């Protein structure tokens, strides 16, 4: 009973911190990150509330005056596969973003469908571990809206973001836990500074997960897969750079 009350108290705190976005999210209760916070909560101290609040806090947002003159590109600048090039030639009108895995209702969203859904626009700073930053304005669909349509199963703990490009023969991919997935600034972006995404910045769709470093922001999204564990995907470390160069899986900023 104590546990239940604690759980509710914390969820209440999270809902407040995230503008009510998280209230009643069962899938979140199953997230390992969330479970860790709950485990700490058993000791009943106030730092827990703060820790969870920190994870759901918004990244700083900027103004039009702060925009970088050019938003530089990094990593893949063009997937340059036959499929990608054909789709690009059609303005990505045939592009589909699949949402599958541990969901009750698998979805496939066309580029047009995503553009007609409710949008969020945010001006944020992108920080790359290679030592540069850029401020850009991103527009896209809150990932939460897509997840609500697909209905995550209780067994889902992570989302895998599949991309259209490969580096050195390995597909690029990334992953997040459910706290970042439901974060209000986590969007599937299709616009940068008011224009459709340039190819070098991830056209037609890329992830913005604003509390994380640059490499987590997967470009050229083709699919989002809900999984119980990161095992068996790539080398199992949760992302391309995590696998090949031991980058941190949790790259919080
Ligand atoms: N699919 C894909 N996503 C990717 C990368 C990539 O090479 N391929 N590079 C990552 C890195 S290291 C950074 S810093 C950002 C760069 O985004 P930008 O090209 O829009 O600056 O994308 C990230 N997402
Ligand atoms: Mo990066």
UniProtKB/TrEMBL annotation:
Give start and end of each Oxidoreductase molybdopterin-binding domain: 93-227
By its UniProt entry, which Pfam families does this protein fall under? Oxidored_molyb
| Gene3D superfamilies for this protein | Oxidoreductase, molybdopterin-binding domain (3.90.420.10)
Q: Tell me the domain of life.
A: Bacteria
| Membrane-spanning intervals of the chain | none
The name on file for this protein is Oxidoreductase molybdopterin binding domain-containing protein
Q: Which organism is it from?
A: Parasphingorhabdus marina DSM 22363
